[in-house]
TrEMBL record:
Organism: Sinorhizobium glycinis
Ranges of residues in domain DUF7884: 8-85
Protein known as: Cyclopropane-fatty-acyl-phospholipid synthase
Top-level taxon of origin: Bacteria
Gene Ontology biological process terms from the UniProt entry: lipid biosynthetic process; methylation
Keywords: Lipid metabolism, Methyltransferase, S-adenosyl-L-methionine, Transferase
Gene3D superfamilies, per database record: Vaccinia Virus protein VP39 (3.40.50.150)
Membrane spanning residue stretches: none
Family: Belongs to the CFA/CMAS family.
One MF annotation (Gene Ontology) recorded for this entry: methyltransferase activity
Length: 418
């Protein structure tokens, strides 16, 4: 048994009930006996040393490799106990130095002139589409849903998200809209069908580009919704009435926020409006969790608002509205995780057991970040113009009601067609 690791775990887990079975066979029950119990077994002494040395990276790796095995509960239950106690309690002088190295490494990478955006996007989004079909909603919305009213299904919440964003964009028929990071095309198609705008969606994922174009063609939208394999940084000579970006800003990189907002202003007409939807943190994090950065989102970074607003202000773009959605992504991730785990056999068949555990860990860790680290979604509405956006927010709810009626009418027509 690793005595130093046991000492660390005793200091860390003071609330809840976590049983740890060490490689020696010794069983230790940690915590105060409250809450839902969970138990893990560490398979070998080398895994124990790795977790002690670099817990932020190695605990996830050991779980992926089957060297940390959950004996009671699931990995979400284990991570919830750890996060609820505060992971900072696991800090030692040695692993703090390792953590500092991760921070410095990510800070340097984010400022390198080498463009790795295409690689970073492909790492995650060019996976087999059947994987995402295991857990996403019917429209393949891979970003935070909007559970308004509370208790609605994932499909309904994703429609509510698109409706909420469309309302904030103040769309009129015939306007030109740019979507930066267009995913599998669902939002672009919704905006075109619901409001009569023309949308250009740009992505760095060849797989998403292919799927988006196929979906638009099947829905007869190819003349109004176009998708391009395009880096926003190299777009030239084009301006749009509206710009929207959902779940893409997290991939921009810490050192590139000023360039991002300057480019968005350049791409907007003088009376334009932009809606930016992104994950945020309550404090400046300096770096992404090293396991997430290595295996899930290389180059990713979740900022504090204090890191976002200064580069916005430097462009003289006007902040017209900031909305915080504090729990909606936790609910979204729970729905994704439950769906994914329920289809474990299909995920394993697509890849393998290690890949399944990697994605299960990713979804569980992300959910706990919103529950215990107080991550949130912010929607930032920007414009170069003082007059374009109304002076009160009543227009948002009014437009949402109008869009909901469109959705109901469309559903009725589709039922009649069938």
């Amino acid at each position: 048994m690793n005595a130093a690791l046991l000492k660390l775990l005793r200091r860390l887990v003071q609330k809840g009930t976590l049983t740890v079975i060490f490689s020696s066979g010794k069983k230790v029950v940690l915590g105060d006996g409250t809450g839902k119990p969970a138990a893990i077994r560490i398979a070998d002494a080398e895994a124990e040393r790795a977790i002690l040395h670099d817990p932020g990276l190695k605990f996830g790796e050991m779980y992926m490799d089957g060297r940390v095995v959950v004996e009671e509960g699931d990995i979400f239950d284990v991570l919830s106990i750890i996060k609820n106690n505060g992971v900072q309690k696991a800090a030692t002088f040695a692993n703090s130095l390792v953590g500092l190295w991760h921070v410095l490494r990510q800070q340097m990478k984010s400022r390198l002139p080498v463009n790795r955006n295409r690689y970073n996007v492909a790492h995650h989004y060019d996976l087999d589409g059947k994987l995402f079909n295991l857990f996403l909603d019917e429209d393949w919305q891979y970003s935070c849903a909007y559970f308004h009213p509370p208790g609605i299904s994932l499909d309904e919440a994703q429609r509510a998200k698109k409706r909420h964003i469309a309302a904030k964009l103040l769309l009129e028929p015939g306007q030109q809209v740019l979507e930066v990071g267009s995913g599998w095309g669902g939002l672009a198609m919704y905006l075109a069908e619901a409001t009569g705008v023309e949308v250009t969606g740009i992505t760095l994922s060849e797989e998403q580009l292919k799927v988006s174009r196929e979906r638009a063609a099947r829905r007869g939208l190819s003349d109004r919704v176009r998708f391009e394999l395009q880096d926003y940084r190299t777009m030239q000579g084009r301006q749009f009435d509206r710009v929207v970006s959902v779940g893409m800003f997290e991939h921009v990189g810490i050192g590139n926020y000023g360039n991002f907002f300057r480019k968005m202003k350049e791409l907007m007409r003088p009376d334009g409006v932009m809606l930016l939807h992104s994950i945020g943190q309550v404090y400046k994090p300096w770096a992404t969790n090293p396991w997430i950065e290595k295996y899930i989102f290389p180059g990713g970074y979740i900022p504090a608002l204090s890191e976002v607003l200064p580069p916005v202000e430097s462009t003289r773009l006007l902040v017209k509205d900031i909305e915080i959605l504090p729990m909606h992504y936790a609910w979204t991730l729970r729905a994704w995780r439950e769906r994914f785990v329920a289809r474990r056999d299909e995920a394993v068949k697509l890849y393998d057991e290690r890949f399944f555990r990697m994605w299960e860990f990713y979804l569980a860790a992300s959910e706990t970040a919103f529950l215990y680290d107080r991550h949130f979604i912010f929607q930032l509405q920007l414009s170069p113009s003082l007059e374009t956006v109304p002076v009160s927010r009543d227009y948002i709810e009014a437009k949402e009601r109008e869009l909901l009626e469109f959705e109901k009418t469309r559903s009725r027509l589709e039922l009649v067609a069938v």
